[in-house]
Amino acid sequence: MEKLSFVKNGVLRLPPGFRFHPTDEELVVQYLRRKVLAWPLPASIIPEVDVCRADPWDLPGDLEQERYFFSTREAKYPNTNRSNRATVSGYWKATGLDKQIVTSRGNQTVGMKKTLVFYRGKAPNGCRTDWIMHEYRVVCAETSACNAPPHKKNQTQTNAVPMENWVLCRIFLKKRSSKTDEENLQLHQQSCDNQKVGKLRTTSKPVFYDFLTKDRTDLNLAPSSSSSVSSGITQVSSNDTDDHEESSCGNSFPYFRRKP
């Protein structure tokens, strides 16, 4: 049987009238799982591309459509499972919890789906964009003969070498139906400005003054307020000196006491 290939120069080329809209289960079971186990694919329709070698708008394919790629995960640090998702001008950041991909009968988990958002700039001060990526991975590399395809049931899986670092990526641009491109650009710029202002606010430290100290030369108060420390306090005076008596102690705030 001739192997069908719909990929040319890393770009998906389907005949007119055909659309590629697989479900999550089909992506994991029919494509990613077979890729991990080095089994024949239903069709050569998903190219192999390192999605972190380029920005999402520079990856092959139509930017207006969903694009699918087989990619490998590169460890960010030695002896760790954390992936390095930095690109040329930004990075992919995971958001939310991973979602389990179960079979249509709902009795078996076959994979996991991670949602990532692309940010421009360097972490952690990047600006969020509308580029979204769904990263699919298999739960485990199944290599036993009982899990083999029907035409390989009676064969041992000595030639199926698991490649557990393979993932399947679906990348698309989230569209905003009620906003124009110019408005989106303004919102994006405003979001970046707000992040910068928030960072400046968090780095500034509050200044506290001890107004009850006797030595007020180091308070750096404005000239208008230095003449009277108690300018913000209403002083109560009375013509009847027999009822009230105003007293003060040094440079502290005035207080009032009723005579016995």
Describe the protein:
By secondary structure, the chain is an alpha+beta fold. Helix content is 15%, strand content 24%. Strands 3-7-6-5-4 form a five-stranded antiparallel β-sheet. A hairpin with a 7-residue loop joins strand 8 (244-247) and strand 9 (255-258). The longest helix is centred in the C-terminal third of the chain and has 23 residues, at 181-203.
Summarize the structure.
The chain has about 260 residues and is of the alpha+beta class. The protein has helices at about 25-35, 180-205, 225; strands at about 5-10, 10, 65-70, 90-100, 110-120, 125-140, 165-175, 245, 255-260. It is elongated.
Name of the CATH class of the largest domain: Mainly Beta
| CATH topology annotation of the largest domain | Metal Binding Protein, Guanine Nucleotide Exchange Factor, Chain A
SSE topology string: EEHEEEEEHHEE
Annotation, overall tally of beta strands: 9
- The average pLDDT is 73
Q: What's the number of helices?
A: 3
Relevant CATH superfamily of the largest domain:
NAC domain
Number of domains: 3
Name the overall outline. Answer: elongated
Category from helices, strands and their pairing: alpha+beta
Strand order of the largest sheet: 3-7-6-5-4
Q: What's the gyration radius in Å?
A: 34 Å
Uncertain segments: 141-148, 150-162, 225-255
Label this structure with key terms.
260 residues; alpha+beta; Metal Binding Protein, Guanine Nucleotide Exchange Factor, Chain A; 3 domains; 5-stranded antiparallel β-sheet; two-stranded antiparallel ribbon; 9 strands; 15% helix; elongated
